[in-house]
């Protein structure tokens, strides 16, 4: 089954481009893309009752969440001034 291209795939592709050429100055732009991905997933969950194991654009919903969330934790949150104090686990 070929991967369907849609909004999530587009957001993730743009995010990966920023990650591959990452600098802390790009954190804001990356954050916006990742947050939009998470919001799209939340909207699909609330409006369509999509389960974590269901496919969205050929990928499990839980995999999409993991991609967007882990990228936020790794690339965006450390740029926050209070990260060491309040965010780091």
Question: How would you characterize this protein structure?
Answer:
- It is built from four helices and two strands, in the order H-H-E-E-H-H.
- It has helices spanning 7-20, 27-48, 61-76, 83-87, and strands spanning 55-56, 59-60.
- A two-stranded antiparallel ribbon has the order 1-2.
- Strand 1 (55-56) and strand 2 form a beta hairpin.
Approximate shape? globular
Q: Proportion of β residues?
A: under 5%
Structural class: mainly alpha
Percent of residues in helices: 55-70%
Strand order of the largest sheet: 1-2
Strands, count: 2
List the secondary-structure elements in sequence, H or E: HHEEHH
Protein topology:
Blueprint: H1 7-20, H2 27-48, E1 55-56, E2 59-60, H3 61-76, H4 83-87
Antiparallel strand pairs: 1-2
Helix pairs in contact: 1-2, 2-3
